Request: fold
Amino acid sequence: MPDFIIFEDNDPLRESLVYMLNSDKRYKVVYESNSCEHAASLTRIHQPDIVLMDIDMPGISGIEGVKLVKETRPETAVIMYTVFEDDEKLFACLCAGANGYLLKKTPPARLFDAIEEVLEGGAPMNPSIASRVIASFKKKQGNQKYDLSPRELEVLQLLIKGHSTKIIAATLFISFETVRSHLKNIYNKLHVNCGKEAIAKVLNERIL
Amino acid sequence: MPDFIIFEDNDPLRESLVYMLNSDKRYKVVYESNSCEHAASLTRIHQPDIVLMDIDMPGISGIEGVKLVKETRPETAVIMYTVFEDDEKLFACLCAGANGYLLKKTPPARLFDAIEEVLEGGAPMNPSIASRVIASFKKKQGNQKYDLSPRELEVLQLLIKGHSTKIIAATLFISFETVRSHLKNIYNKLHVNCGKEAIAKVLNERIL
DNA sequence: TTAGAAATCACTCAAAAGGGGGATGCCGGT
DNA sequence: ACCGGCATCCCCCTTTTGAGTGATTTCTAA
Reply:
């Protein structure tokens, strides 16, 4: 049963979302909040599968909120639920790692579809949003969500072939210790703790 | 009259094969080579009906050779003619598209039978080879070429999520040392030396 | 019935990997 | 001129892993 957290400052709307989701026995809202103030710690504590996030909230915006959630727990799917239709906020959210982008005019039934869609790894969004995203692909290349340096990429590519630190060092003609440094930085950027996790993450999420 | 190409680096053997086949007025050897270096272009040029292919050759192996021939001209029948009886090479050849697999200990008379067999669309192979192929089909469904036990599969599935030995042990409610035993066996069966290589191999070759 | 697998656990030893520091030099932007 | 990112290297220390051996139990198939 997927766990939800809802960030939405409009009280009636938030409550009706909570009510809707909890009415469906497939879902469970484990937390609701009217601000992104503690998005990171809430995510760490509740380990939600899906986060519904408004953009326009007092204090920390939903765009920052997405970053906080994703940095804390990248596997949590974040669906933006907002009135904003302008490109700037849209792309800011997607760059921050949002999995879906729904307008508040979206009928509730479509919301449930969207939830199922993200659970299956999809990226639900309104048609008008989708077309803008497609259009942007002509130039925008969303590779570096992990912001790895060129050298780190080289090291990572060797790592995911299963090579040891020694072999990587020999291959790149640099010292063992340097490779270790790169690996430490890579692990931090990928939010993993060891090479095995890194390989698993990269290959499963086809990051490279 | 079916045309032959023979790839065999052992000169006396290759020459005797050529002599044998050309002595039979039903067959014609249109080319012979001691390496698979130009297997693709030779196949394109001579359009052979049958290729006799050794496995162990300097440079490009016969296994690669089969691929080259089959990619160039799928209707050409390839008969592997080799001393190797081990499963790994056998299955590699069959996966690469070999039509038959004969051991060099096969008497010449049987070789002619085999040629007729492939010309009729059959798949000639020595009984010992055939039995291994049949045997492999029982398990081939579940996990493919690596014959992992059910428990080993469970461990491997956790491994490729990047989990540590400790975590795997806790997840399966077995001891740390048992997981280590399973991992050692898995590494042997996958022909790798460490977990990172195993993850890389499994995910890159989408074995699971 | 017995030989062989599968699964379980244990112990040793050495190598590899991970986490924490810190240091240097280079380069680009403010 | 200064700061930050990048790449390079070094040290210390702990944990994890790999490799080798060996043992027990259970179950199945020859």
Q: What stands out?
A: Chain B touches chain A through 17 residues (CB under 8 Å).
